[in-house]
Amino acid sequence: MTRHLDLALIGGTGLYKFPGLTHVERHAVDTPYGAPSDSIVTGNVGSRRIAFLARHGESHTIPPHRVDYRANVWALHHLGARRMVGVNAVGGIRADMGPRVRAVPDQIIDYTHGRLTSYCDVAGAEVRHIDFSEPYSAGLRKDLLAAAQRAGLAVVDGGCYGATQGPRLETRAEIARMRRDGCDLVGMTGMPEVALARELDLEYACLALVANWAAGCGPSTGSGQAPEISLPEIFANLEAATAEVPRIIASLLAV
Ligand code: HPA
Predict the structure, then answer these.
(1) C-beta of 90 in contact with ligand 1 (< 6 A)
(2) pLDDT of 174-228, one tens digit each?
(3) Domain encompassing residue 188
């Protein structure tokens, strides 16, 4: 079934539904790679049609390393999506990437392992070496940034997303290494989603929501050591950053 969709949205931690959709339909899509994380909801934002999928499932039961990224991206493409925004909770490494900051990264480094990262590793599939020098789509990044600006919401333009395996958070040494590598943000779900989108020739941009300072980052306590990362704090920050996502998406769709 392919029908025109203006956008696909993959919601991360804290974003399990897209509020205010009209003409809602649910699709249980089967794929050659398995089942997506949940059924996919299509619906209208004004006159535009979007598809929404909760990356971890609507009850958040799938950890980052168990997400079937191939099934998710394939299913959204199958429903007719050609542009995709991935919303990802992240930790902030760079000084201007503190809790509640929103960012649209322009680079990514993959530290994950053991994930199924390509549609090529199926018997008989054509082997494609996609160009990935610029992992995110320049056009969709620009449109997303402009949409946030029109909505009056601050979003940092650019940054390098370091994708870690999870589900545990990182050690201070791991984050120090990632900082030396040039990472500005750290999250567990940025890869292989964006690479799979490129393999299917989808436009893809990431809207990263900073939930916490990454390990050892941020303002230090009197002891000189950054405080431990507290889960309630993460969720409060995420809730605040996520609350504005529908406004940014509505603004993106309004042009
Ligand atoms: N590290 C990795 N992923 C995350 C973090 C973090 O500190 N915060 C939210 N997602």
Answers:
(1) yes
(2) 999 999 999 999 999 999 999 999 999 999 999 999 999 999 999 875 555 666 7
(3) 7-117+127-253
Residue 114's nearest CA partner among 74, 70, 66, 162 is: 66
- The C-alpha atoms of residue 77 and residue 145 are separated, in whole angstroms, by 23
Instruction: Confirm whether 24 is domain-assigned.
Output: yes
In a domain, 2, yes or no: no
Centre of ligand 1 to C-alpha 169, Å, is 6
What's the CATH number where 168 sits? 3.40.50.1580
**Predicted model pTM:** 0.95
In this structure, are residues 238 and 89 in contact, taking their beta carbons and an 8 Å threshold?
yes
Residue 197, domain member (yes or no): yes
Closest CA to 194 of 89, 124, 106: 106
Say yes or no: CB of residue 89 within 6 Å of ligand 1: yes
